[in-house]
Specification:
With about 350 residues, this protein is mainly alpha-helical. Among the domains are: about 90 residues; about 60 residues, no CATH class. It has 16 helices and no strands. Helix 8 packs antiparallel against helix 9. The protein is elongated. The two termini are about 70 Å apart.
């Protein structure tokens, strides 16, 4: 508000000089004095109005200031008063608009990026609602919720339901398993047809890698059991070895896939080398450490398992993995049932 007082003071000084005897004098010195006071008053009013204006209206600074000065200079007193009132109107409009959108600071909710457990159902909880003593409508609803559960968890449950005494449950379980298997089979068939064409080494490498990943997905999703599982594992390994032989620059993902396939074959030494190579090429340690811990466990190197689990504690691991890490490191919260219920799932 100090700028407003300065502006009104300059306007009153400008008004006073025009009512003074100097205006009626015909001397050059009187004219220069009146002009000087008028210029100073206009400059004060212009500067005050310029500083009161919102920031977005001040650009470009020099040009805006000159325009405002000319407006107040050309029309003595009235121009300055009009300029002051226009500035006041602009300020009021800016204040009204500022009330429409006031930024508010809010706390972000805690969200586990890795876990995604918010949308998942516990395996034990779903199994309990699929029991034979549960009403049929509840069993069907629970069965349909398996569509939102990862295939690695849901498919073993569906396999068990294939021998259920209720026809509807058996048919739905078979349909869900068959749909998942057909989806992967279509992708595999498409990649095999593409592999028969004339391809560059990079294209052939990509195609072979996709085939290895799709065959591994059949294993990972528990869609193959027994001898079929061993056959698909061999095929996944063959496609992977052919991809590695293409001479294309490799990344961490294919070495990570190789480590998991070799681990499923039981070749833990080669699997460990492949997983370490994946980490060297940039694979996040949070995804590799659980497999390295599994290898150490198979070797009965429990101290090394605990070391890997301690490393996982300091990383942003998923809730299920954290439960296992807490179990091995002796964390206090592993005694809670909400954590222990994850133990059978890993």
């Amino acid at each position: 508000m100090n700028y407003v007082y300065w502006a009104w003071g300059a306007i009153l000084a400008d008004l006073g000089i025009f009512f003074s005897p100097l205006v009626f004098s015909s001397s050059l010195s009187a004219f220069a004095a009146v002009l000087l006071v008028h210029v100073i008053a206009c400059a004060i009013v212009t500067s005050c109005c310029f500083l009161l204006m919102p920031r977005q209206f001040r650009l470009p600074r020099k040009l805006v200031w000159v325009y405002l000065f000319n407006f107040s200079f050309i029309a003595p007193v009235l121009g300055a008063i009009g300029l002051l009132f226009m500035t006041r109107i602009t300020l009021r409009q800016a204040e009204e608009q500022s009330h429409l959108a006031v930024p508010v600071s809010v706390l972000l909710p805690e969200y586990d990026v890795q876990g995604k457990d918010v949308t998942r159902k516990g395996q034990g909880s779903i199994r309990s609602r699929l029991g034979k003593n549960v009403p049929a409508n509840v069993r069907m609803q629970s069965l349909l919720t398996l569509q939102a559960v990862p295939t690695r968890v849901s498919n073993p449950i569906l396999e068990e339901l294939l021998s259920d005494s209720t026809d509807d449950v058996r048919l739905v379980a078979f349909g869900m398993l068959d749909a998942e298997e057909k989806k992967l089979s279509v992708l595999i068939h498409r990649e095999r047809e593409l592999l028969e064409r004339e391809l560059t080494p990079e294209q052939r490498y990509t195609c072979l890698r996709h085939l290895a990943e799709l065959h591994w997905e059949l294993i990972y999703a528990s869609l193959a059991q027994g001898e079929l599982r061993h056959h698909i594992l061999r095929q996944a390994r063959e496609y992977l070895e052919k991809a590695l032989a293409q001479g294309v620059q490799l990344n961490s993902g294919i070495w990570f896939l190789k480590g998991r396939i070799l681990l499923a074959h039981g070749e833990i030494d080669d699997a460990e080398l492949a997983l370490q190579q994946a980490v060297t090429l940039g694979q996040p340690k949070i995804s590799v450490l659980p497999y390295l811990a599994e290898i150490a466990f198979k070797r009965r190197e429990f101290a090394l398992v605990k070391t890997y689990m301690q490393d996982l504690v300091y990383l942003n691991a998923a809730s299920r993995t954290r439960a296992i890490a807490d179990f091995w490191t002796g964390a206090h919260n592993v005694s809670n049932f909400s954590d222990r219920r994850f133990l059978p799932h890993i």
